[in-house]
Amino acid sequence: VHPNVSQGCQGGCATCSDYNGCLSCKPRLFFVLERIGMKQIGVCLSSCPSGYYGTRYPDINKCAKCKADCDTCFTRNFCTKCKSGFYLYSGKCLEKCPDGLEANNHTMECTSIVHCETSEWSPWSPCMKKGKTCGFKRGNEVRVREIVQHPSARGNPCPATTESRKCIVQRKRCQKEGKGKKNREEKRKKSNKDESKETRQESKGRAARRQNREQRENNNKTQPKKRKAPNKEQDLAPVDTAH
């Protein structure tokens, strides 16, 4: 072992030196060179930093740099995230997306163009005018549909979701809700009043009949009974004229 090589290293190094840092790493750690000014030192990490990808070898695991336009990569030729100003497509970083694709500035990827999609039209509504279905002959009826898929930036825009057309119906008079309600209320009050009047009249009639009956009974009790007049024909005896 070289005199400058130490076996008692810190930070995951298997071997190290005071000048070059880590020279080898413990199992399953990745060796990567970090630049500090004009100097490069070796460090051992559990995963490779941004801009690097890991490769495993029988004697050592190393971190290698991605391409210049790649922020993170799986291998040198397969990028997983691009640097600013580039769009990811099939593992590559492009300044402009291919035909048939569009740049997604949110994910910084080239994605398929999505066109608007709508549902089927609903049935036509009843013929109406100013929110009413009566009191007119010519009105309008409408139908609607919903957006089921919003378009992407370069996709076809959504069409109208509401459609209207003129309609003709047989005119019918509208019932005035306020007036009808008022009439019903007046009829109910009048009916209640008539019932109350009839009830009072019946009560008065029963009281009058009861009073008359009691008056007759009292009169019968206070007046003496009249004697019957004799029958004159019975009192007169026949005259015997034989003598």
From TrEMBL:
The keyword rRNA processing does not apply. This is R-spondin-3. It is found in: Secreted. Its main location: secreted. Activator of the canonical Wnt signaling pathway by acting as a ligand for LGR4-6 receptors, which acts as a key regulator of angiogenesis. Upon binding to LGR4-6 (LGR4, LGR5 or LGR6), LGR4-6 associate with phosphorylated LRP6 and frizzled receptors that are activated by extracellular Wnt receptors, triggering the canonical Wnt signaling pathway to increase expression of target genes. Also regulates the canonical Wnt/beta-catenin-dependent pathway and non-canonical Wnt signaling by acting as an inhibitor of ZNRF3, an important regulator of the Wnt signaling pathway. It comes from Promerops cafer. Residues 175-219 have a biased composition (Basic and acidic residues). Pfam families: Furin-like_2, TSP1_spondin. It comes from the Eukaryota. GO terms for biological process: positive regulation of non-canonical Wnt signaling pathway; Wnt signaling pathway. Residues 174-243 are annotated as: Disordered. GO terms for cellular component: extracellular region. GO terms for molecular function: heparin binding; signaling receptor binding. Residues 116-170 form the Spondin-like TSP1 domain. PROSITE patterns: TSP1. Residues 11-110 form the R-spondin Fu-CRD domain. Interacts with the extracellular domain of FZD8 and LRP6. It however does not form a ternary complex with FZD8 and LRP6. Interacts with WNT1. Binds heparin. Interacts with LGR4, LGR5 and LGR6. Belongs to the R-spondin family. Keywords: Disulfide bond, Glycoprotein, Heparin-binding, Repeat, Secreted, Sensory transduction, Signal, Wnt signaling pathway.
